Amino acid sequence: MGYRGKVVEQAKARQLRAKGLTMDEIAVKLGVSKSSVSLWARDVPFQPRLLKTKARRRGPNPLQRRKQEEIECLRVQGVAWVGRLTEKEFLVAGAALYAGEGAKTQAQVGFSNSDPRLVAFFCAWLRKFFAVDESRLRVRLYLHRGLDLDGATAFWSEVTAIPTPQFTAPYRADPDPSIRRAKHPLGYATVVYCCSRTHRAVMGVVDALLTSNAIPG
After folding, report:
1. Which of 95, 108, 119, 211 has the fewest C-beta atoms under 10 angstroms from its C-beta?
2. Which range has the worst mean pLDDT, 9-18, 157-166, 185-194?
3. Domain count of the fold of the chain
4. Domain range enclosing 54
5. pTM of the prediction?
6. Residue 2 Ramachandran class (φ > 0 left, ψ -120 to 50 alpha, else beta)
7. DSSP states of 154-166 as a string?
8. Same domain for 179 and 114?
């Protein structure tokens, strides 16, 4: 599918989520996987539809509605502002992302994040601009014990387009309830490509981005 695939389905998924449909309902309606829906609509403010019963459920208060409206308005503004990236803009955006989140010191390209959109963006960027041997790509998951490892593996495999046999042993953390109340239900993924030449090429682009003559005056 790729990072830019199924644009129409992505837009419809966001619209349906905003109307209060569940991830499962949207997946069935659009004929896509639930993990794809989760990836596309995870940032859409969600208010479950009112059940058709005698008991009335309270909807969002005026302040919450204004907040949701502002979030969606600014999201639409951001989409219009950014538009569709040119190839050069895509290269620069990926370099900036790697400068902040990527591995710097090892002889391998590595990127870790819990946001599937960023991981998908990175994978698309790496494949677009560098010669990648798909068989050498690896994924390692960080996931708290008690969470669904098989489900998380399937989810991140779809996000990265990397087959599950290329996933290495996951790190299963013991959650500490005294300091952490919220868990990432799907954990976070680290994508690794062991190739020193590719790492040098990536860091060359990053260095070019961060040199003084590349920054607007």
Report:
1. 211
2. 9-18
3. 2
4. 7-82
5. 0.70
6. left
7. HHHHHHHT--GGG
8. yes
Both 184 and 122 in a single domain? yes
In a domain, residue 1? The reply is: no
Query: From residue 66, how far is each of 97, 99, 103 by CA, in Å?
Result: 31, 35, 40
CA 27, 163, 154, 127 torsion-angle sign: negative
- The edge-to-edge listing of strands for the beta sheet with 171-173 is 109-113, 188-193, 137-144, 171-173
Q: CB of 139 within 8 A of CB of 186?
A: no
The distance in angstroms from the start CA to the end CA of the chain is: 39
> 161 and 125: one domain?
yes
pLDDT class for 216, splitting at 50, 70, 90?
confident
- The tokens for 82 are 């950014």
